[in-house]
Structure prediction request, 287 residues.
Amino acid sequence: MRRRTPVRQNAAAVWLVASAAALLALAPVASTVAATGDKQPIATAQKPAPAANAKSAAPTAPVVIPADVRARIVAKLPGVQASDVAVSPVPGLYEVTMGGLIAYVSADGKYLLSGNVYDLDTQVNLTASRQNSARAKALAVASESNMIVYGPANAKMTVTVFTDVDCGFCRKFHSQIADVNKAGVRVRYMFFPRTGPGTESWTKAEQVWCAADRREALTRAKKGETVKGKTCGDAAVKSQFELGSDLGVEGTPAIFTQNGDYIGGYLTPTELVQAIQESQKTAGAAR
Prediction:
């Protein structure tokens, strides 16, 4: 994949991709999946308009999750709270939000399913919208004091980018940051050293964060220059890295829109604007 530097691959991920591919083959979608592999299928089929003389359906009572079911699920998943458990589109399964990820758990709390749920009648990825909503919420509450921001506060578009100082495509993206800003996009950087804590890339991220001028230090580091300064600890880099992991970051750069859409890895300024606009359009149509 040319746009993203992978963190790791595992058998489960390969299996999920293969399963999704098989599912899509059985239920052809109306739109083309982006070359980066980050966009979800967008359904274009329109639901038939109700007849003019049709009576309004009676409101459906909300489904109540039994307390014992919620308690069992929370007990099995550390960090999950009762409010993170909801009814899923699939009878017998319950939806659990874990950071920016969505999973499905059986009522007895014994089985967990990770992957996308598709409605074969409408060809809509039901998991994607819920996942985007969870990501958007997590990004909205993240403080910009824990980010390095390029671009004015009143920019037309804003993205959050998880970056690695040593990532080649991250450096290429940052070399065009002025053009990205001119295109009306504000960039909020957070660190995601792919090699993890205690590595050279992690140390470089700490050095940039501890610099008096973080924006200038990041630009220098992206050019391969050495950044020296006081040590201020790794708490900030650690929290950024953990948030990226919670959101499902698979490689760097990882670009998220304000509505939580994971739109890709490296994109040119023009491609970035187009991807954001498409994401906004899709999010608006889903409302």
Q: What stands out?
A: The two ends are 32 Å apart (CA to CA). The chain has two domains: 5-43+64-139, 140-286. Residues 1-54 have pLDDT under 50 and may be disordered. The CA atoms of residues 70 and 82 lie 6 Å apart.
